[in-house]
Amino acid sequence: MTTIENGTGQQEFTGKRALVTGGSRGIGAAVVRRLLDAGAEVLTTARSATGTVPEGASFVEADVRTRAGAEALAAAAQETLGGVDVLVHNAGGARPHEGFPAIPDEEWQDALDLNYLASVRLDSLLVPGMRERRSGAIVHVSSAAVLTPAGAFLHYTAAKAALENYSRGLALDLAPFGVRVNAVAPGRVATPGGEATRERWAEVSARMGAAPAESNPDDVPPLGRDGQPDDIANAVLFLASDRASWLTGRHLVLDGGEFPMG
Ligand SMILES: NC(=O)c1ccc[n+]([C@@H]2O[C@H](COP(=O)([O-])OP(=O)(O)OC[C@H]3O[C@@H](n4cnc5c(N)ncnc54)[C@H](OP(=O)(O)O)[C@@H]3O)[C@@H](O)[C@H]2O)c1
After folding, report:
1. Distance (Å) from CA 91 to ligand 1 centroid
2. pLDDT tens digits, residue range 144-171?
3. Hey, which of 19, 43, 47 would you mutate to test ligand 1's pocket, going by the most ligand atoms within 8 Å of its Cβ?
4. Which position among 13, 59, 116, 156 bears the catalytic label?
5. Is 156 a catalytic residue?
6. What are the structural domains, with CATH classification, of the chain?
7. CA 73/CA 81 separation, integer angstroms
8. DSSP character at residue 184
9. Ligand 1 pocket, residue 31 CB under 6 Å
10. Is the pTM of this model over 0.85?
């Protein structure tokens, strides 16, 4: 663990209260671990605690796709933390399909609820407290797949594109109140969700009898390896920290060099 101090001898996130969605595995669990290591008090959520919620974090079961889930989570944050200084919207994902017309209507709605509207709903409940305190940092987890929108994942990439656009607009809205909003856009990261999605994608592509238009699932990024959850968590922590105090409305593509024009 690398400890970064804030010049007062304290760890960088000492005294900060953080809420991370989807912290039971993958990127979310790495963000939770890093925040705990840096001294934050952390609450996280998932639909069930069957994954490995990092020790030391508080956990509440909630489905962020619904307004009721967002409300339950905001109430738990108030009760457990007494407020939120750092908000990381990480829960996300979608199943690939055999091209655009094969994506069922309910999965379009689901992709929007999970990858976009979940953030809007939770922000609407937690941003008023940040505005009042005139401080706060929000990080949205998008996807580098936004850079190559195409059939199998169109519901997912469209939802993440909406999230990025919203993230930039929210940043402008909140800048006068000292609240910063940024996004990260990961490429291929080795997580349970990422691996399962890529396996399904390979199956779908094989059934279609053609290489998917997005990119070859077997490609390795130019840096020679897939990303690890900590690669993303390190960037999330930077964006949420005071080291990024003049940074808002940005999205950072973290992809091992896969999309040089991203
Ligand atoms: N891995 C990649 O290659 C990759 C690439 C680009 C972007 N991303 C983005 O990075 C984020 C994390 O991905 P990951 O690969 O770490 O995913 P993951 O391994 O599937 O983990 C997802 C986490 O979110 C939780 N979650 C899922 N649906 C939820 C819901 N409706 N309500 C509350 N929690 C929910 C999961 O727990 P439960 O299932 O128990 O609810 C789990 O804790 C996502 O936004 C994803 O789109 C990942």
Report:
1. 4
2. 999 999 889 999 999 999 999 999 999 9
3. 47
4. 156
5. yes
6. 17-254 (3.40.50.720)
7. 11
8. E
9. no
10. yes
